[in-house]
Design goal:
single chain, three-stranded antiparallel β-sheet, six-stranded mixed β-sheet, 16 helices, 11% strand, 413 residues, alpha+beta, 47% helix, binds protoporphyrin IX containing FE
Length: 413
């Protein structure tokens, strides 16, 4: 018989609808119980709630492993419950194995590389807003398809399919495994995505282009050409990392600004304030709420002894609202600085797409504030994702605004 956990035992499931109704309150109540708690949900897992302990676990990557293992079932090791997707690289490799893959990404995700992408981000944002600007009404959930399209465009995949990528990847993370949406995604849309990526890899091996897939397939790992499986694992992670997260950030920021017109006016009047504001939205709204690790050896965290095989949820969202790390953590202060939030994770797996995510969020928010400055959201009709356990955000945001003019070409960029 395994020993009962020696930390508080809680009735908690971050994937449940009860949690989705109030994730901020739920994590506040857990933090009041201690820096680490245990729940029997999904076969049993620990939840790390305070900033210092989340930081410590995320930095101890050999003890809190991101690699696949039989503990907690089969599938993506960084979520609870695991979901049946292909291995994701580098996020599911521990160092040193992760390093050569991250080195492939670094030159393409550096601040300079992302600056070069900004005109493309602007064109796509202009185009998305052009599609609705004359109508005076829209669902912001469609406008924030920009990150999905930019990610597909950057990789070199067909941008007209963005909705299918976006909804499939979202369905596996945001719906219960027994739901029809989850089943459809796993049985139909994920295999379709696999086909698209495999076809693009084969094509770029023969006919390289100026796109990220060509860059990845031309790379070497330890002196040998990267395998098709590894290239696939990197591309699928870039799609799932890029498609939903920034949309979730922007959706929450737009709803927040509708509720706080004084902050909206401040940002509209001085767009340079967006830089810090985006960091604060990352902290306060934590688009990626929590990710998992597996314990590899006996260790004590937050006073609680852990055993090899234990599954541990690192709640970035809770760390980001921990009053010992942030003054008035529940106040969204758009000028907050410094702001060492955990919104992009911590440690070796810290988000590779952080600069891209920031650039897309700034452009989207900037254009909405400039072109739809008086937007109003029907707050009674907004719909959040059914589960807020991994990605928090809205899937329906009906809005009205004074109609404006199209600014770009009628043809997609
Ligand atoms: C606001 C937007 C974003 C948020 C909140 C976010 C959040 C995160 C977090 C929390 C991690 C840490 C994973 C872990 O520790 O297990 C991560 C890793 C990662 N993200 Fe993002 N992400 C965002 C945008 C993007 C974009 C736009 C891309 C690329 C298109 C991307 C690609 C990745 C990759 C490749 C990793 C794995 C890095 C590694 O393992 O070395 N992310 N992200």
């Amino acid at each position: 018989m395994p020993e009962p956990p020696s930390c508080p035992i809680v009735d908690f499931d971050h994937t449940s609808s009860e949690h989705a109704a109030d994730p901020v309150g739920a994590y506040r109540r857990l933090r009041e119980l201690g820096p680490i708690v245990w729940t029997a949900a999904h076969g049993g897992y620990y939840v790390v709630t305070e900033y210092d302990e989340v930081f410590e676990a995320a930095r101890s990557d050999q003890v809190f492993s991101s690699a696949r293992s039989p503990h907690g079932g089969e599938g993506l090791a960084t979520v609870i419950p695991k979901v049946p997707v292909h291995l994701h690289i580098p996020v599911e490799l521990d160092p040193p194995r992760s390093r050569p893959y991250r080195k492939i990404l670094n030159p393409k995700t550096s601040p300079d590389a992302i600056s070069a992408l900004v005109p493309r981000i602007q064109d796509w944002t202009t185009w998305f807003i052009d599609q609705v600007i004359e109508d005076g009404k829209c669902d912001f959930a469609s406008v924030i398809g920009v990150p999905a399209v930019v990610t597909l465009d950057w990789l070199g995949l067909d941008t007209s399919d963005w909705r299918r990528y976006s909804s499939a990847l979202h369905a596996v993370l945001a719906n219960q495994p027994d739901s029809p949406e989850h089943r459809h995604a796993v049985e139909v849309d994920l295999p379709w995505i696999t086909e698209q990526i495999r076809a693009a890899i084969d094509d770029r091996r023969q006919r390289p282009r100026d796109d990220l897939i060509s860059w990845i397939v031309a790379a070497e790992i330890d002196g040998a050409p990267i395998s098709t499986d590894d290239a696939y694992s990197m591309i699928e992670l870039l799609i799932s990392g890029g498609v939903g997260t920034t949309a979730s950030l922007v959706s929450q920021a737009l709803v927040h600004l509708a509720r706080h017109p004084e902050q909206r006016e401040e940002l509209r009047a001085d767009p340079t304030l967006l830089e810090r504001a985006v960091e604060e939205f990352l902290r306060a709204f934590s688009p990626t709420q929590a990710l998992a690790r597996t314990v590899t050896r006996e260790v004590t965290l937050g006073g609680c002894p852990l055993q090899p095989g234990d599954r541990v949820l690192l709640a970035w969202a809770s760390a980001n609202r921990d009053p010992s790390a942030f003054e008035n953590p529940d106040v969204v202060d758009i000028g907050r600085w410094p702001n060492r939030h955990a919104g992009f994770g911590i440690g070796v797996h810290r988000c590779a797409g952080a600069h891209l995510g920031r650039a897309m969020a700034r452009e989207l928010l900037g254009q909405v504030l400039r072109r739809m400055p008086d937007y109003e959201i029907d707050l009674d009709a907004v719909q959040t994702y059914p589960s807020q356990g991994v990605n928090a955000g809205y899937q329906r945001i009906p809005a009205r605004f004074t109609p404006g003019q199209r600014l770009g070409s009628p043809v997609a960029p």
